């Protein structure tokens, strides 16, 4: 396995098709509209690439309150359980720290237990919960980046 993690600022157009495939697999067939990606000012994309194939991604952007928001992520089903999500998170945190951010926030749902566990293993604290506009219970995680 020759894994490379790339950081791309803005929409990763060259990888968009493969990113959409992984997104649909992770999020029950859902589609991530290009307009939604393009609307995120300061979008930072971490891409895990193996032999010219996108196998995972982690997207985030600056939140208006000055915290970096780790928004979306996923790993191809055939590559899960190999620590790729952890590697993407570590690289994302290094990049956001280099950009001057000291705190990262992410939301999780009980539906995605593996991601909840990854967040806790990497030092995130549960700071709150809420019900989103679709009636889903969400957990808010935050971490100071060292």
From TrEMBL:
Name of a matching Pfam family: Acetyltransf_1
Source taxon at top rank: Bacteria
Annotated GO MF terms: acyltransferase activity, transferring groups other than amino-acyl groups
CDD domains: NAT_SF (cd04301)
N-acetyltransferase domain segment(s): 6-146
Name of this protein: N-acetyltransferase domain-containing protein
Organism for this UniProt entry: Lysinibacillus macroides
């Amino acid at each position: 396995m020759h894994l490379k993690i790339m950081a791309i600022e803005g929409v990763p157009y060259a990888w968009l098709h493969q990113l959409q495939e992984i997104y649909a697999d992770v999020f029950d067939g859902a589609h991530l509209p290009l307009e939604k990606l393009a609307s995120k000012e300061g979008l930072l994309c971490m891409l895990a690439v193996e032999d010219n194939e996108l196998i995972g991604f982690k997207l985030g952007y600056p939140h208006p309150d000055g915290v970096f928001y780790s928004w979306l992520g996923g790993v191809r089903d055939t590559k899960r359980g190999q620590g790729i999500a952890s590697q993407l998170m570590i690289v994302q945190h290094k990049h956001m720290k280099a950009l001057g951010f000291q705190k990262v926030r992410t939301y999780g749902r009980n539906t995605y237990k593996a991601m909840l566990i990854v967040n806790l293993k990497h030092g995130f604290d549960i700071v709150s919960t809420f019900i989103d506009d679709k009636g889903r219970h969400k957990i808010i995680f935050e971490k100071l980046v060292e």
